[in-house]
Amino acid sequence: MNLLNDESLLSHDRAHAQADAPLYERLAAHYRRVIASGTLAPGDRMPSVRALMSRHKVSLSTAIQVFRRLEDGGWLQARPRAGYFVRRPAASKLATVAEPDIPVLPEPARYVGLHERISRVIERAQAFPDALNLGGATAGAALYPTERLQSLASRILRHKPTLLTEVGEDGGAAELRQAIAKRALTADVTVAPDDVLITSGGVEAVNLALRAVAQPGDTIAVESPAFFGLLQILESLGLRALEIPTSPTTGLSLEALDIALTACPEIKAVVAVPNLQNPLGCVMPDTRKAELVALCARRGVALIEDEPYRELVEAAQPARPLKSWDRDGGVIHCASLNKALAPGMRLGWMSSGRWHARVRLLKFAQTRHNESLAQFVAAEFIGSGAYDRHLHRLRDKLRVQREASADAIGRYFPAGTRLNLPPGGLLLWVALPDGRSSDALFEAALPHGIRIAPGSIFSNSERFRSFIRLSCPVPFDERMDAALRQLGRLAAGIA
Ligand SMILES: Cc1ncc(COP(=O)(O)O)c(C=O)c1O
């Protein structure tokens, strides 16, 4: 089937895209899907403007807007006098990060002793408030729909003037829980609005999940490397971490997890970030996601899915969460709007399967319900077509930023530097050559006005001392280029 000529496919896309999106946006979304699915491969020539006009019965200006939109989003590249071509991803010049070894026996589970190290890194970074922050994990405010959210907030307050003064709903606003449950259907998750609990970001959701399934002293299997915030939570709850090798391409090693679950029957839960793992950026293939859910169910171990980045995955179909394979309520799904929509609103949510009642009780005892205004704003935005349009734009911008940064790293960093280009998000996990210390690079970069995240805070071991996590939070401009050039110079000079 020639997808490009297939009007019925476009009608299908149109039905899926929100009806209120302008025609050029819907057509651009159609061609993004065609490219993401591989029907048009990197280097292929796009149909001409004229072909687009006759194929989709659109005007010249609409066809031109489609091309502009795709070019701005980094999907197409114009070649003078030759037309538009599908862009090749950048940074394939660098070798990829090595796969981890799978040990025959797991390392012993340890209490995390990282809080001081992480706090010191944060404190040092904060001493340079004007530095370009390449150490965070949220995009710059310009990438989020500030004005739209602001006008929604004003309108909602006009209609519900007591929103700031009356007590909110236990468990979260019904409107938001409903919008989240409806959207979950697009990722093959069926969850009732009553099973959704609104939290203060993903961090609170993971906290509650761990408190529901484990007691101080218990062992939790985590990815290695892991998001440092998770390691801080484990430390604060007096839980032990057992680090499981994690592939930079396929995620948590199921082979290593199987070995660990056999050797350590005391493991109470597994925490995994299957979609755009932080810091690796990998997305677990669906077959492995299904196997992970089945493995945890077979062993009777709770599976805590932490996925603040799922909506940032670039793929022809929405990425599936582990929860979509859950058959017996053994998966606690934790998600967040802080990366995809509005870091300032601090909204997250969870659906906790068989631990729902316990989690509700813990949330009530700990913080009561979230503030209402942000929830109403999020409910309206998510429930409208504006959310998908925003996500398309955000993913496109992040892709361009990521590729430009990876390209610059390829140009400026010492020979032997490795990185994987993730299929979404804003994080790059970079391996420095010859065992160079990322702590030394972190310190050396601060006086130059650059913050990075050193690999040492992503594990309780010394395993990642030569890695850095770099984010691409803002459009790639001269400042970003100069910062990466400077980092490359510094990396060449450290031991
Ligand atoms: C894997 C992971 N989980 C949870 C969080 C925290 O999410 P939130 O900001 O929604 O609390 C982050 C933030 O960086 C993260 O990377």
Automatic annotation (TrEMBL):
Annotated InterPro entries: Aminotransferase_I/II_large, HTH_trans_reg/aminotransferase, PyrdxlP-dep_Trfase, PyrdxlP-dep_Trfase_major, PyrdxlP-dep_Trfase_small, Tscrpt_reg_HTH_GntR, WH-like_DNA-bd_sf, WH_DNA-bd_sf
Ranges for domain HTH gntR-type: 21-89
Keyword tRNA processing: no
Keywords, ordered alphabetically: Aminotransferase, DNA-binding, Pyridoxal phosphate, Transcription, Transcription regulation, Transferase
Top-level taxon of the source organism: Bacteria
Entry-linked SUPFAM superfamilies: PLP-dependent transferases, Winged helix' DNA-binding domain
Keyword set includes Transferase: yes
PROSITE patterns associated with the record: HTH_GNTR
GO function terms (MF aspect): DNA binding; DNA-binding transcription factor activity; pyridoxal phosphate binding; transaminase activity
Cited Pfam families: Aminotran_1_2, GntR
UniProt similarity note: In the C-terminal section; belongs to the class-I pyridoxal-phosphate-dependent aminotransferase family.
Name recorded for this polypeptide: Transcriptional regulator, GntR family with aminotransferase domain
Source organism of this protein record: Paraburkholderia phymatum (strain DSM 17167 / CIP 108236 / LMG 21445 / STM815)
Organism phylogeny: Bacteria, Pseudomonadati, Pseudomonadota, Betaproteobacteria, Burkholderiales
